[in-house]
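Entry under discussion copied across for reference:
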Amino acid sequence: MKLLEEKIRTDGIAVNEDILKVDSFINHRVDPFLMQEMGREFAAHFSGQGITKVVTIESSGIAPALTTAIELGVPMVILKKQPSRVLNKNLAHTMVTSFTKGTSYELTLSTEQVNENDHVLIIDDFLANGEAATGALRLLRKVHATVAGLGVLIEKSFQPGRAKLNEQGVHVYALARISKMSENYIEFIPEEA
């Protein structure tokens, strides 16, 4: 998606070969117009697949997941990273290791929100090693939901996330695919015609 690639070029900061800061438009301050366009793009790509819910992991995936859900006309469900005093019954759990933070967390999903009748689309901000997406898949499989695919804003294609998900039969659609990155340098994989 040229619009997102240009935003990354102008406002993103490649800290090193692993870290891309996009906090000025995606995960701290949010550009609502960019989110709206990305939601339209995801909805167009996954249209006609019978999606009943859009699922994301808190918190950076919420904005693009919401705009995608609006475009598809379906509810959005947020997978929680923190224990809740209110959501404590009928929960599916799995452990996920965060590449960015270097920590592990327990990801939870209320079985009252997603079940075997749902065909879901997962939306996330980044795909690198695929750990968060794999954790989301484990939860969705525990509740017997089916998965239409994974939509990600930014894929670090030089890391193994896509291959790991493709091996599990998951269709991955990335709006911006980075082939190489180093301090103050970003190279994108050209969009397919």
In short: The first helix runs from residue 2 to 11. The chain has a mean pLDDT of 93. Strands lie at 13-14, 20-21, 53-57, 76-79, 91-98, 103-110, 119-127, 146-156, 172-182, 185-188. The chain is about 30% helix and 35% strand.
